[in-house]
Design brief:
- By secondary structure, the protein is α/β, with parallel strands linked by helices.
- 49% of the residues lie in helices and 11% in strands.
- The chain has a six-stranded parallel sheet with strand order 3-2-1-4-5-6, with helices on both faces.
Length: 238
């Protein structure tokens, strides 16, 4: 099977979000001079952030609620006496200005795919931040378009998100499309909702406890190339 349309998630698929997050986190706390205990604060923040993004994907809260609440909850947890709103804005700015770190193997994969398949980005991230990070990473020129939930008005994994995406890709054929991402709840479930094949980038070897349907599963981005080009012999199909 050869895929003529590849839809890539951004965070933790094309971009090394954890590395970028650490840089932005340090820079923002240094900027405001608040007490900073990196390991514990990141652990708590990631718990808060994951919970809020999961609620967003389920349609329980708005994206603005994530922005408004995550650092306020972090400040409350650690007893930081400060206004979380400008801190949140600065963090987002720093993520865009200091980010742009490609996931290991991402540039090599995208360069190998360029010209063989049509490339697109599908993401729930913040519009300005995602665009800045993709440009800084050097990956942006290889993609025809970035589809961001902010501008589409619909979030992954909803079918409506992908309906808009598909309608804006000329000559799109769903049976020739592959969605690649690290998230079961957003990417793999989104591909299932949209009726296209999926490739789970599972670099940590996690278990699919929710039994979300997955067409392919890989631990390395390099393993995606033979899947897309139809040359995979031992590609693990779920």
């Amino acid at each position: 099977m050869r895929y003529d349309f590849c839809l890539f998630d951004a965070d933790d698929t094309l971009l090394d979000f954890k590395a970028e997050q650490l840089i932005a986190f340090r820079a923002t706390f240094r900027q405001y001079g608040y007490p900073y205990h990196e390991q514990e604060m990141l652990r708590v923040y990631n718990q808060i952030n994951h919970r809020l993004w999961a609620a967003f994907e389920k349609g329980e809260i708005r994206k603005q609620d994530i922005i408004d609440r995550r650092f306020q909850e972090l400040f409350d947890h650690f007893g930081i006496n400060g206004d979380s709103r400008p801190f949140s804005v600065s963090y987002q700015d720093n993520l865009g200005l200091l980010g742009g770190i490609a996931e290991p193997g991402a540039m090599e994969l995208i360069r190998a795919l360029a010209g063989r398949t049509r490339l697109f980005v599908v993401t729930n991230g913040m519009k300005d931040t995602q665009e800045q990070r993709m440009r800084r990473s050097g990956l942006a020129p290889y993609f025809e378009e970035m589809f961001i939930s902010d501008t589409l008005g619909v979030r992954k994994p909803e079918k409506g998100f992908f309906d808009i995406v598909f309608s804006r890709i000329s000559g799109f054929e769903p049976q020739r499309a592959l969605l690649i991402g690290d998230s079961l709840s957003s990417d793999m479930a989104g591909g299932e909702n949209a009726g296209i094949d999926t490739c789970w980038y599972n670099k940590l070897g996690e278990r699919n406890t929710g039994a979300v349907p997955v067409t392919y599963e890989v631990k390395k981005l390099a393993d995606i190339l033979p899947i897309v080009t139809g040359q995979a012999k031992d590609a693990a199909e779920a």
